[in-house]
Amino acid sequence: MFSSVEEVRGFQPQVSCRILVDGLALRGFIYPHTGIVRGDARSLGVAMASIVAKVTRDRMMERLETQYPGLRVCPAQGVRDRTSTARAIIRLGRCPIHREMFLRKLLRGRVDPAQLGLFDG
């Protein structure tokens, strides 16, 4: 393992492959990669990975729906619009699956003091 911060910063992985990223190249990502804008339309490998990722996400969301009923995170229930999602979160409260940045963007501009505790974890 590493014995100092300098060793960690200087770490360069030794790999013999290149990762294809659907979109722009990732700043600060240490593994060799190539960003391909609209990669799912231009690369069969990226398109297949996209399908696997979406199916995996949908299965995860189905399991989360049983843990957090009412938030309608399950794709089978249809996508909520921004307003109904915000109302559900305000009514039911924050849960661990909500990233803070997602909540901040979703609720931007709201100043109701009752909502201030929403970001307390």
Chain-wise SSE layout:
Elements: H1 5-9, E1 19-22, E2 33-36, H2 39-42, H3 44-67, H4 82-92, H5 100-106
Parallel strand pairs: 1-2
Keywords:
two-stranded parallel ribbon, 5 helices, extended
Structural overview:
By secondary structure, this protein is mainly alpha-helical. It has 5 helices and 2 strands; from the N terminus they run αββαααα.
Nearest-integer average pLDDT = 77
Task: Please state how the strands of the largest beta sheet are arranged side by side.
Answer: 1-2
Low-pLDDT parts are 115-121
Over the alpha carbons, how many angstroms does the gyration radius reach? 20 Å
Order of helices and strands: HEEHHHH
Q: Strand portion, in percent?
A: 5-15%
Q: Structural class of the secondary structure composition? A: mainly alpha
Largest sheet, in brief, is: 2 strands, parallel
| Count of DSSP-assigned helices | 5
Give the distance, in angstroms, between the N- and C-terminal Cα atoms: 33 Å
- The strand count comes to 2
The shape is extended
Helix content: 40-55%
